[in-house]
């Protein structure tokens, strides 16, 4: 007797496609609510504060220590080739191109994404979303859309803070501790980092990651089962799916940016 039936495989594939289609419709709906969300800018502003300001501490501390490590590792690597003065360029390019957007998105998923999922899931478990629908209020427009656009706005700002603090950390290690010339550190960085191709690509990545992570967190909370176990499972899925999505999108975006 076979351990699976073709009908079970077909049902599973159909359910997966239905979930993807529902997610795509939800994302499109959130994009169409851009204007309606910013008519009540206070709601979006509050979410930017909640998601961004409350994540600022972990982003800053993580960026500082990543900068420390990059400055130290970069110095010992470049010293072999007599280019230790270029450690500033190495730190800046590593942060603005890759590490800044990626690590910020992963930390954002663990800090803000789980908070969004738990909040929406508890609202669903408490039947608050159903009560809004009974009062002819669209919960997607009133609850999800402001949080979605708040996360999209907060993510690039946090990535910029991460990169800036990381560069400062690299400066502390390379210049103040190791003794590299300060002028060489900054001049190599200014001469080698291009605003459009390097910083611009990092901003694009951070915006895409912000859309992906925030949407996944909201969708998992909105579709969570209305039980404590369902909310906890949805919170776990938010971290796992968001992390894998960020890493996969980073590869796709890097290939696209360097092939154009």
Structural features, described:
87% of the residues lie in helices and 0% in strands. The protein contains ten helices and no strands. The longest helix is centred in the middle third of the chain and has 40 residues, at 139-178.
Main beta-sheet annotation: none
CA-based shape: elongated
Bin the helical content. over 70%
Secondary-structure class: mainly alpha
Total number of distinct structural domains: 1
Rounded mean pLDDT is 89
Low-confidence stretches: none
Query: What is the number of strand segments?
Result: 0
**Number of helices in the DSSP assignment:** 10
Q: Rg to the nearest angstrom?
A: 22 Å
Oligomer: single chain
* End-to-end CA span: 53 Å
Q: State which percent range the strand residues make up.
A: under 5%
Tell me the series of helices and strands, N- to C-terminal: HHHHHHHHHH
Short description:
The protein is mainly alpha-helical and 260 residues long. It is built from ten helices and no strands. The longest helix is centred in the middle third of the chain and has 40 residues.
Task: Give the arrangement of secondary structure elements.
Blueprint: H1 6-32, H2 34-39, H3 41-52, H4 56-78, H5 87-125, H6 128-134, H7 139-178, H8 182-192, H9 195-222, H10 228-259
């Amino acid at each position: 007797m076979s351990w699976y039936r073709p009908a079970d495989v077909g049902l599973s594939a159909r359910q997966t496609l239905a979930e993807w289609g529902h997610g795509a419709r939800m994302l499109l709906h959130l994009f169409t609510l851009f204007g309606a969300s910013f008519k009540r800018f206070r709601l979006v502003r509050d979410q930017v504060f909640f998601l961004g300001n409350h994540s600022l501490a972990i982003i800053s501390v993580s960026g500082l220590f990543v900068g420390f490590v990059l400055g130290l590792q970069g110095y010992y690597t470049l010293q072999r080739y007599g280019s230790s003065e270029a450690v500033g360029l190495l730190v800046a390019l590593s942060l603005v191109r890759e590490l800044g957007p990626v690590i910020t998105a992963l930390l954002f998923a663990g800090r803000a994404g789980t908070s969004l999922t738990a909040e929406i899931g508890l609202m669903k478990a408490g039947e608050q979303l159903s009560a809004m629908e009974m009062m002819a209020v669209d919960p997607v427009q009133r609850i999800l859309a402001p949080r979605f656009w708040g996360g999209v706005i907060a993510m690039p700002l946090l990535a910029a803070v991460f990169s800036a603090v990381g560069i400062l950390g690299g400066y502390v290690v390379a210049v103040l501790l190791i003794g590299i010339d300060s002028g060489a550190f900054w001049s190599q960085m200014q001469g080698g980092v291009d605003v459009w191709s390097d910083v611009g690509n990092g901003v694009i990545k951070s915006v895409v990651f912000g859309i992906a992570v925030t949407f996944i967190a909201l969708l998992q909370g909105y579709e969570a089962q209305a039980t404590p176990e369902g909310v906890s499972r949805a919170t776990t899925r938010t971290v796992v799916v968001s992390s894998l999505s960020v890493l996969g999108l980073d590869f796709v975006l890097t290939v696209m940016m360097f092939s154009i």
